[in-house]
Design brief:
Blueprint lengths: L5 H4 L8 H15 L8 H17 L2 H10 L6 H7 L3 H13 L14 H12 L17 E8 H4 L3 E7 L2 E7 L8 E4 L15 E8 L5 E3 L2 E9 H6 L1 E7 L2 E7 L8 E4 L16 E8 L6 H16 L1
Parallel strand pairs: 1-5, 7-11
Antiparallel strand pairs: 2-3, 4-5, 6-7, 8-9, 10-11
Helix pairs in contact: 2-3
């Protein structure tokens, strides 16, 4: 497998922070996303490389292995157990080319030639010895982002995605939250030597352009009351995600009064027929452009209040 400089792919340096890696990935992923570059093979290839680089560098443990072992980072655990050092392997390769060294000369390792051969042959192929079989390795996980508006996140629905050049159809449960990550098993990179596929991790970015503020499963909204309804009471219609509902307004309602509409909030993730609540905050709308008669009536009201 050829060495790929993941830092170069994301246009960052080895000293880049996790936040800088995430920022670089999002910028490039949006630029080369297949949906924005239809039938562009180069963009598709670039998008695949970007996801692969992010999969490695965004995970601190994987990044550490990559920095030490390069293209063979996925086999770091096996290397560590065998006492393998990448610098020693370079020396070993030069010795093998000379044809004068045996396996036991490599690094002074405390293991038999047979065990060493089985491990090393599974990684680099046989060197005049037969192998009992190649080890199976799990494929890389993929990461992707999916943008939804709040209305789409309110209902369970299906959506088609293009990930690493492949089209998949997923079901998005109602109630998914901004920043939430869900796993799609077996939709990552293929495994090596018959190993299992990796998984696909999707991060949801919820764009809220509605009149509601969302906090968890609850929704919050401001509702204007005209002065007369606030004073005398009455009935009004307010918006919810299920349409309009009629509610009663108590007489002499004050600005900032809050009313809870039970079960009119956001769906609870993967809980059928369970919803949060909708909290209404009343604001009083003072009338403008009063007629002469209205002003006269308000003046009379003011006099009555002052005489009490």
């Amino acid at each position: 497998m050829d060495y790929i400089d993941y830092y170069k792919v994301l246009d960052i340096t080895k000293s880049s922070t996790e936040a800088e890696i995430k920022k670089a990935y999002r910028k490039l992923a949006r630029k080369y996303h297949p949906d924005l570059n239809p039938n562009d093979k180069e963009a598709e290839k670039k998008f695949k490389e970007i996801n692969e680089a992010n999969e490695v560098l965004s995970n601190p443990e994987n990044r550490k292995k990559y920095d030490k072992y390069g293209k063979d980072w996925k086999h770091a655990d096996e290397f560590e157990k065998a006492g393998y050092d990448p610098n020693q392997q370079q020396q070993y390769s030069r010795q093998q080319q000379g044809g004068n060294q045996s396996y036991s000369d490599f690094g002074g390792g405390d293991f038999s030639g047979s065990d060493f051969s089985d491990f090393f042959n599974s990684m680099y192929g046989s060197s005049g010895r037969s192998s009992r079989g190649q080890a199976k390795y799990r494929g890389q996980d993929f990461n992707a982002e999916l943008q939804l508006d709040l209305a789409a996140a309110y209902t369970t629905h299906k959506q088609n995605l293009t990930v690493n050049g492949k089209n998949i159809r997923i079901t998005i449960p109602a109630g998914v939250e901004n920043g939430q990550i869900i796993k799609i098993p077996n939709h990552g990179a293929p495994g090596a030597n018959g190993g299992p596929n990796g998984d696909l991790y999707i991060t949801f970015l919820i764009d809220n352009n509605s009149e509601f503020k969302r906090e968890g499963n609850n929704l919050y909204a401001d509702v204007d009351l005209d002065l007369y309804t606030a004073i005398l009471g009455g009935e009004i219609y307010v918006n919810t995600f299920d349409g309009k509902v009629k509610i009663k307004v108590a007489p002499e309602t004050q600005p900032g009064t809050k009313v809870k509409l039970k079960g009119k909030g956001f769906p609870v993730y993967k809980k059928d027929n369970q919803f949060g609540d909708l909290y209404i905050n009343y604001t009083i709308k003072v009338p403008t452009k009063l007629s002469a008669k209205e002003k006269e009536l308000f003046e009379e009201l003011a006099k009555l209040r002052n005489h009490e």
